[in-house]
Amino acid sequence: MSGFTPLSPILSRSDHQVFFMCPGCQYWHGVNVEHASRPRWEWNGSVDAPTFTPSILVRPGRAVDPSYQPEEGDPPEVCHSFVTDGRIQFLNDCTHALAGQTVAIPPFDGASS
Fold this sequence. Notes:
35% strand; mainly beta; 5-stranded antiparallel β-sheet; 9 strands
């Protein structure tokens, strides 16, 4: 993947994806908005108040470190949300602390992964 190109304080682009920082997972979530491959999301084109459809379901694993091994009985890590008008609505099946809450997309600082 190539480097990130800032689109606004809250969105960046790389290849065919648009990325935003997820405050629940503490790292970026990217959605395919251009490439014909699936999955693909519709985007309203706004860089200040983006809407992506359908919902975004991310199962990133229990840690960014690929060598991390979950312990038996650990629940799967899930981030499931709708992004509408620049706000993230975290659904109740999220396994992070923001489950059931709606928050603004935070600034994209480009420093995390």
